[in-house]
Specification:
five-stranded antiparallel β-sheet; Alpha-Beta Plaits; alpha+beta; VC0802-like; 23% helix
């Protein structure tokens, strides 16, 4: 067996039965003294314009690996990138990494007390390590943790990164079609999902689409339908609740540090539950600060407390539906 076949064998061990891929690229790192000797020979023999040793090595490695695996070379977006490092003593080390896989999904939250996000692993700060089983997470006691664990097991990936279309309180439920999200999976060994993945636990129900997606570059505009349980300091009358109709198609201004954020309400319905409690159903722009809107904190205007002439606070709110625009 010549040296080239030996290297190909090492690449096969690292990649062929481990990664699921259709395209690949191979790169190489050679010892500095090889480049120095090549430069000396080129200078002495006045050789110009020929392929370097490194390029010749890569051409042969790529050609042989392509024949053996029947996979295609891709210089731009390969499914797996392979690096062959040759040491000073001519020892060979092979490293491989798959291209990040991005999937889209949505979840329904069935149980209160479950946070959306999981805190990062304190040892690696989210990068993935042995302490967190390469998840980058402190555990799996959240929407993020439950979904991440299932996806890591299925795709044999690590350190998933989530992009959420909005968020909710730990004690809020999410119903309707669920909250959309995107997740990027690092170094997936399996990159083709045959079918959509359904995750059904006592806490959540989530569907992850089999077809890979891209995370949108611009912010996603969405509307959220929310049911809010409001408690007032004093008794609320039906007339007070009718005054809340003023909020239909209203624009609300929220103060966030030194800037004003504007959100629109498209519809509002109020239903009295008892003397000092009522339910508010709100269809509004995504990212609507519910608690500030009800209480009027931080100069939020208009707000529920001012309209009904009674100090109010949000006791609980649930997400009924989310519509991407």
């Amino acid at each position: 067996m010549n040296r080239l076949d030996f290297i190909i064998g090492r690449i096969e061990e690292k990649v062929k039965e481990v990664y699921e891929f259709d395209t690949f690229i191979i790169g190489a790192i050679l010892p500095p003294d090889i480049y120095e000797r090549e430069d000396q020979i080129r200078a002495r023999l006045k050789i110009r314009g020929k392929e370097s040793i490194k390029n010749q090595l890569l051409i042969e490695l790529r050609r042989k690996f392509e024949i053996i695996t029947k996979k295609k070379i891709d210089y731009l977006l390969p499914d797996v990138s392979i690096t062959v490092a040759v040491g000073n003593g001519m020892e060979v080390n092979v490293a491989a990494k798959a291209r990040t896989l991005t999937l889209a999904g949505h979840y329904i939250k069935k149980q209160r007390g479950l946070p959306q996000k999981q805190t990062k692993c304190t040892y690696c700060e989210g990068r993935g390590c042995g302490f967190c089983s390469n998840s980058g997470l402190s555990g799996y006691r959240s929407v993020e943790g439950i979904i991440a664990h299932q996806l890591m097991c299925l795709t044999k990936s690590h350190a998933p990164r989530f992009s959420w279309v909005g968020s909710e309180d730990q004690d809020s439920l999410v119903s309707g079609e669920g909250r959309p999200f995107f997740v990027r999976l690092s170094d997936p060994k399996v990159r083709v999902l045959r079918n959509n993945l359904n995750i059904d636990t006592p806490e959540i129900y989530a569907v992850i689409e089999a077809k890979p997606k891209c995370v949108p570059r611009s912010p996603i505009r969405f509307l959220t339908k929310t049911k809010i349980l409001v408690e007032s300091a004093n008794t609320i009358t039906e007339n007070n609740l009718q005054d809340l109709n003023l909020l239909n198609n209203a624009t609300v201004q929220f103060q966030n540090k030194d800037k004003i954020i504007t959100k629109k309400i498209y519809s509002v319905e109020a239903r009295k539950i008892k003397d000092n409690r009522f339910e508010l159903t709100l269809l509004a722009d995504g990212g609507f600060a519910i608690k500030k809107f009800v209480s009027g904190l931080q100069n939020t205007s208009p707000n529920v407390s001012n309209i009904v002439g009674n100090k109010c606070e949000s006791i609980l709110f649930d997400i009924s539906d989310i519509n991407i625009q």
